[in-house]
Amino acid sequence: MLCTTVRNNVECPFMTKKGCSYEGNVCKTIVPQCEGCARIHEYSEKFYCQILPDPMAKWKTGNCNMATHVSSIKVETKQKINPIKASKRSKG
Questions:
Q1: Whole-prediction pTM
Q2: Residue 4 lies in a domain
Q3: Which of 8, 19, 32, 42 is deepest in the core (most CB within 10 A)?
Q4: How far apart are CA 87 and CA 92, in angstroms?
């Protein structure tokens, strides 16, 4: 349904016929960690996340998984190989 509270005439999954079904009946503004994300849009002179109604909840436990400006670095660890087992595998 289309939002009638903060994001007027924008599709919102929390809108029902009775109004906004999200906690507090309104989306919350972005937090400082959101600065630089491509999913931020300005509505009514305030900045809101396009996807999340409460950005602070995503940043509580670490990085937001929806953030476009944060990249997760995966560290690959090289597993030690037992030379005796490796020689047996190559023979068989």
A1: 0.65
A2: no
A3: 19
A4: 9
